[in-house]
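Take a look at the protein record below with the fold in mind.
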Amino acid sequence: MSAERFGGLRARIAAEAARLMYEEGVDQYFTAKRMAAKRILGLVEGRRARYRPADLPSNGEIREALLLFAERAEGSQRTRRLFALRVVALEAMRALAPFSPRLIGSVSTGHIRRGSDIDLHVFPVDEEALERHVRTLGWTFDRERVTLQKGGELREYVHYHVADVAPLELTVYAPRELRMRPRSSTDGKPIVRLGIAALSSLCARDHPVAWERYLETGEVEGIDALLEADEDEPLPGPFDGLLRDTGGDGDESDCAEPGEEDDPDQDYDPLPGFEDVA
C-alpha cells in the first residue's frame, strides 16, 4: 500500500492522529498514529486494510498537523496562552535557579495545544536538596520514578509533577548531563532546551507588547482565564474540513535520548540568536 495510491494516506493519518491528540486526549504519537491508521484504513472499500510502517506519518508530521489544528481552533487565544505559559515557566525557573532549570517541549518550541503542560529539566547535585527546595516554595507535588529503555539499556528517571498556575513537570538529571545535547523522540534532532536568559529573550522576540507589559506590571493580563482547563467547552470544530483538505508518541519526550557532548563553555543554543547564559 502506498500513500500515492490512496491519495495522501500519510497526510490523512497525520490529520486524524492530530485530531485524536487534540480532541480525545491521546498523549502519545505512537498510540495516536496507530489508532488513526485503523480508523482511516477501515474505510478503504468497506473493510479493514493492512498497513506497513512506511505508510505511517512521522511524529514530526503529526506534530505539524497538531499545530495546525490548534491554530485554527484557538486563533489568537493560542498565542496569548503560549505567552502565559512561558511566563509561568520563567517564574518557575527563577525559583529553581540553583538547579540549572531548562525548559523543553511545546512551551519552548511554541507547539502548544490545549492541555499542554510545562516541562523542565533540573540538574541537582543532591535530589533531596531539590525536594526540600520545592517544599520550601510551598508547591504541591507528586514524585514519580519511571523506568525506560534508552539506547538498549534500562534507565530510571525521577519526575516531580507540580500543581502550580499551570501544571509543571520536573525531570531530574545528573549535573554532568547539563552539557549534553539530548535528542528528541519526535524527530531525532537536538531538543530545544532554554535557560532563563534564552527564555526571556524568546518572550521579548515573540511577544514584544505583552512582554513589555509584563516587565512593567509583573503580571499577565487574564492569565487565569487563559490557563484554566476548558474540558467542558466544545471545540469550534474545523476538523472535518481539515480532514477533507488533507485527504486529497504528545509533546516530545521529556526523558532525553542519548546525545553528543556539548561545548563545555557554552550551553546548547537551540534557537538562532538566543544564548543560554543563565
Observations:
- The chain has a mean pLDDT of 76.
- The first strand starts at residue 102 and ends at 104.
- The two ends are 51 Å apart (CA to CA).
